[in-house]
Design a protein that fits this description.
Elements (H helix, E strand, L loop, with lengths): L3 E8 L3 H19 L3 E5 L4 H7 L5 H8 L3 E6 L15 H8 L4 E7 L14 E7 L27 H20 L5 E6 L5 H15 L5 E6 H10 L6 E4 L1 H14 L7 E5 L4 E5 L16 H17 L3 H19 L13 H10 L9
Helix pairs in contact: 1-9, 1-10, 1-11, 5-6, 7-8, 9-10, 10-11
The structure holds nicotinamide-adenine-dinucleotide.
Length: 361
């Protein structure tokens, strides 16, 4: 059985705090499940740019890309900006360079967490497109102006097809774990030409998967249903900026960003990071909730296990899920969830709750 090379990028703000917490849980998983992760650490951060002017280069990307997976904390500080006025974010550059086209953002309302709604059932996967859509023009020629500025929404048939195929694949995989096996497209084809094509491609792919359910909602109505009736959603797939927004609405339904993991993937690469950013308002206080990062690490193990047919990683990913469930159900919660536990205490509770199994290859 092979070992895995992991590029670790802690980043800014709470990024290093939650990455350290996740690595402690992963270390315990390695001991219990018998696999090996070999880390290379990379200091890519807005803080580094502020101090030295150093940005991520193509050579850095190539080096990172030679790893089996990337474990990413968060990058960006609102006051640190490049010459164009935009923030620095290696996550955005990695999406473009590799390119990673789907951001998988699962949300689940865990026992022990009080969501803002009356329902106690939220279990959905929001898939945000990340290579085109409303971010398609990021590299377009741009004349700085104080009078007019525009962005570009472009959707290609190839981009839409690979995204929607991932959505149906994910629905099928999730169904094996007890979810309904259903995909909903959130779109705006009543007003945006790009979304007419997106809807057309969705219909084509849906017809190829008659064993799975499907639905389409306009993004505005869908945003309302997400709050009023989140139980109707299993897999939700949508364009880049819509996904950016509704995935955080979905995170809000289950207690906030502290419990919302994510994975940016292509067919052969994966960057695993929480949905949250660097949270400068709480950085350095030891109170960041590491659960989202730890669940992102579980997604990394699940992805590695699936790609390399490695039962050790698959079982460890499942073990982390069970440990998070047990920790929250036992009332160990950070301030973001109304509790008092700090980052280290939550991570230690999750580590200690990992199932007692020995699976040696
Ligand atoms: N993928 C990324 O690296 C990423 C994603 C989003 C934002 N950012 C960057 O992060 C910086 C801050 O952005 P922001 O404030 O809009 O979003 P944010 O996600 O960092 O924080 C939003 C709110 O959620 C809270 N929060 C976030 N994660 C938490 C956690 N694990 N535990 C407890 N509370 C948590 C924060 O304290 C804050 O109140 C910006 O520079 C932004 O560009 C980076």
């Amino acid at each position: 059985m092979r070992d895995y090379a992991i590029a670790a990028i802690p980043g800014d703000g709470i990024g290093p705090e939650v990455v350290e917490a996740a690595r402690a849980v992963l270390e315990e998983c390695q001991r219990r499940y018998g696999f090996t992760l070999n880390y290379t650490d990379y200091d890519f951060s807005a803080e580094l740019y502020r101090r030295t002017g150093r940005k991520v280069t193509e050579a850095d990307m190539d080096e990172i890309g030679a790893h089996d997976a990337v474990l990413f904390g968060a990058m960006g500080l609102p006051e640190v900006r490049g010459p164009e006025g935009l923030e620095l974010g290696a996550q955005v550059e990695m999406r473009a360079y590799f390119p990673l086209f789907a951001s998988l953002r699962p949300v689940r309302l865990f026992d022990g967490v009080d969501g803002p709604l009356k329902t106690d059932h939220v279990d959905m996967l929001v898939i945000r497109e990340t290579s085109e859509g409303m971010f398609a023009g990021l590299a377009d020629h741009h004349e700085p102006s104080d009078e007019e500025a525009s962005d570009r929404m472009t959707i290609t048939r190839a981009g839409a097809r690979r995204l929607i195929e991932v959505a149906f694949d994910q629905a099928r995989t999730r169904r094996r774990r007890g979810t309904p096996g259903h995909v909903t497209l959130l779109h705006k084809s009543n007003a945006l030409r790009s979304n007419v094509l997106l809807e057309k491609v969705f219909d084509e792919v849906a017809a190829e998967h008659p064993d799975l359910g499907s639905a389409k909602h306009y993004i505005d109505a869908g945003a309302m249903y997400m709050v009023l009736d989140p139980g109707r959603y299993d897999v939700v797939v949508t364009e880049n900026i819509f996904g950016d927004i509704v995935s955080e609405v979905a995170a809000g339904l289950v207690g906030g960003l502290g419990v919302a993991p994510s994975a940016d993937v292509s067919l052969d690469r994966g960057v695993f990071q929480p949905s949250h950013g660097s949270a400068p308002d709480i950085a350095g206080q030891g109170v960041a909730n590491p659960t989202a990062m730890i669940l992102s690490a579980a997604m990394m193990l699940d992805w590695l296990g699936g790609r390399h047919d490695d039962e050790r990683c698959l079982r460890a990913a499942e073990g982390i899920q069970r440990a998070v469930e047990a920790t929250l159900a036992a009332g160990v919660r950070g301030p973001d969830l109304g509790g008092t536990a700090g980052t280290a205490e939550v991570a230690e509770a999750i580590r200690a709750s990992l199932p007692q199994v020995e699976v040696r290859a």
